[in-house]
Structures are given as C-alpha cells and as structure tokens.
Amino acid sequence: MSWPDWTSLIVGIGIGFYGALRRSTSPASSPETPKSQALANSSDSDDSDPDDSALAAAYHLAKQWGAFQAGFLARTAHELRSPMSSAIGLHQMILNDLCDDLEEERQCVADANQAAQRMVNLLDRLIEVSKFDSGAIEPDFQVVALSLILDDVEGLTYLQAANRNIGLDFEEPPEVDVWVDSKRMRQSLALVVDGLITQLAQIGDRGPITLRTSVMAETVQIQIQTTCALETWSDPIDLMDPGMAVAQSLVDLRAMAAHSQLSPMMGLWVAQLAIESMDGQLTATSSENGMALLCTVSLA
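The structure assignment produced for this chain is given below.
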C-alpha cells in the first residue's frame, strides 16, 4: 500500500473516532423528547384553563338564553298568525259567497282591515323590542321619581281591573328616584300588570294583584304578587292548532280581528326584554299563594 493510501486511511479513522467521541460527550437526542414536550405543553395548558364552574355557568346561561329566544320566536309566530288567519278567513267568507248581503260583505272587509291593522301594530311592537335587544335604540336614562311611574301604571290598569272585578292594590312606594327610561319603564310595568289581569280573567280568578316596593342596596325591587299560579303562564304553543285554521265562524273571525292586545305571555316577554335593556331584571317565581314577579332597577 502506498503512502497516499495509508494517509487516507489514517485520516478516515481519525474522523470516525472524533465523531464517535463527540456524540458520546454531547447531550443525547432522546426519542422521548417530543412526548416530554407534549406533556409540558399539556401542563401549561391545564394551568391556563378558566375555572370549570365559570364555564358551566356561562354554558347554562347561554342555553337558557337560547331557549328564551326560541320560545320568543314561537310566540311571535303565534301572535302574528292570529290576525293573519282572521283576515284570510274574512276574505274567504266574501270570495265563497257566504255573506248574506252586500252590507255583511262590507262588514267583513272592515273587520279584515282591523285585523291587518292589528298585525301591523304587533309587528311595530316586535320590531321595537328587537331594537331594544340589539341596542339599536338606546334607553333614554333619566332620574325620575318611582312614585310617578307607579301612579301612571296604576292609572293605565285600574279601569281594566275594575271592569273585570279583579282587585288591584298598589302599596305606597318609598320616596326614591330611579335611573331608568321612564317611558319604557312605565310601559313595561303596565304590560306586566295588564297581562296578569287578562290571565286572571281567563281562569276566573279575582285576584288580588298586589304591588309593593322595597330598597335593597343600590337597587329598587318592585314585587307584583298575584293568586295566579306560575304554571298558567307556561302555556304550550301549537302552531298547527285547529283553532287557528281559517275555516271558522264569522263571529269567531270578527272577535279575533277585534282583539288587539298582546297575549299575557308575550307581554311578559316584551316587558322582560325592555327592562333588561335598562340593566334591570324581571323574574317570576312561585309562591304559597300564587306567583310573584320581581322587577329590579337601579337607584338614581
């Protein structure tokens, strides 16, 4: 073997020996490293997770709000279908020559127009509520005496309660001011009381309806107590109810066309959305003698 060959061999052995020595003295690249890194990342992730109870509370709140919106949508469809069904039925009476004379045909047209006006009014009310909920219409907050609001609500509902022989008792409120949109607050409470009166009349209950107020910390609580059971408000909605069909008697169609008020449940939901838009709350609970509605708003 020549000197160049010996030289190449020696250089190759030296390079190989140097490489082996370097690998033995440097940190090993263990195959467990990716797994260890994954465990470390998992540990870091666990440390940064939010509290499980807070997540559960947020989940249940979102679920309840979704159920509320679904129920509100179903009730809206039910409310709008009633006047629409009435208008269609009245027109069918004319188209099918079921009217006795020209005067009755004109009356059917007038009643159908009334039903259409009712549907437009309901749409306006629901559009306004949707603007409350989305924040498109901001509440006009102002300092107003609570007694003035309750006096107006009593004036708006007293005659209806008296005409149906239902007791209505507004206890003297404390002399405090609240921070609300006075018009929205007045309409919301009137809707609640009006719905209670209607519900009591439908089940033949004479009440009474009692409204009392108290001051708690930085809020005012308005409690509306009635003998109406909470379960009577949770009426199921059947959008395929045969009673909503267009083939009804002329008397029933005219009665539906003349009825221009929101149903008690719909009125309660509208009031709830309006009060929540003012950073307040409206809740309903069962009590020994019936049910209690609690409205909470901020002191001025």
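Interim note for the steering committee: The chain has one domain: 60-298. The two ends are 107 Å apart (CA to CA).
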